[in-house]
Amino acid sequence: MFNTSYDNYNIEVDFNDTVKVFNIPFLMANKDSVFILTKNDAILKGRQLIKKQLTDNTQLDIVFDKSIENSSIEKYDFRFFSNNSTAISSMSVDPDSRNIIQIFLNKQVTPGDYISISHFPEKLVSTDGGKATAFDPEPI
Fold this sequence. Notes:
CATH class of the largest domain: Mainly Beta
Structural class: mainly beta
Oligomer: single chain
CATH topology of the largest domain: Immunoglobulin-like
Radius of gyration: 18 Å
Order of helices and strands: EEEEEEEEEE
Number of domains: 2
Shape: elongated
Number of helices: 0
């Protein structure tokens, strides 16, 4: 039992080697409700962004804590922002490390450029079936 403000909350529960997420609607309409959490009602926690790095002037790697399903990568689900006209030309899962998405840029970035990456629709899936959450623009 605890007090909180009204909102939707995601609660993570560790079931031995699996983390699942419950979405709980703490809304005024539910103020006297009791929520019973069962393992089958939760979704598998998706991948978490660990780091992003330029590997050279035309390639950006984004690293996750889990292997990524290559078929879930859609170029248009990602947004690359820059202060010049640099854009994403293609992307794929790194064949040597499946937790890295390699993003290839249409031209070189130069020192001093402002660049960031974000992921919007929550379609990115880890190989264990966990769905990704969107992430806001991350500066690089």
